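2.7 Reproducibility. Because tokenized structures are sensitive to small changes in the input, we list the exact sequence used for TetR family transcriptional regulator, including any N-terminal residues retained from the expression construct. No trimming or masking was applied before prediction.
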Amino acid sequence: MSHLARVQMFDKNISNQRHALRSQRTRELLLDHMYRLALEKGYEGITVQQLLDSTGVARSTFYAHFRDKEDLIVAGYEAIGMPATKVTEVDGDRRVVLEVSTWLFSATERHAALTTAFFSGPGQNVILAHLENILIIQVREHYRKQGLYQVEHMRGEAAVRCFVGALTGLWLWWVRHDYPNSAQEMTATFDSLMNNGTWPPACNTRE
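Resulting structure tokens (single pass, no recycling of outputs):
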């Protein structure tokens, strides 16, 4: 590679890094103002135009990042990061489990007021659908890595859907009842019922 080509590649990498940094800052700015407005007036009272007015972000820039305000909320959940994994024993078997319940309940507890604001109106169904999709993708990928998911068999997808359905159902009950138990208690209860994050047991998932 010539010196000129290396310089051009370096300049391109620097430009890409700057663009990524600007994009990240824009997303964080929009999320921050979304949270503030949600606490002030409730999620349903927020419009995209209000977000643009409060942040100074151009409409074209907003739609370059997000489809709508629901998509912005989903970005907030994604910004929490991916659930961690841990090694544990279930019925004497050593397993790598996805701590998705810890991830969901703990993040919600830290932002309880925001979650209540987001799930207090008719828009909650759209947000919940997005959240369920995030969880399904995470759990399915974990099952696949652990050999618990096979595309050609229904059992793997059924396990994913049942696990995520149980998690979101319990989580939604918790939110709607104003967090009657701690996130730690919710996580421990859910994991004990669902075999610590790998349901059904590994010995029953292969055909």
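Confidence is low (pLDDT under 50) at residues 203-207.
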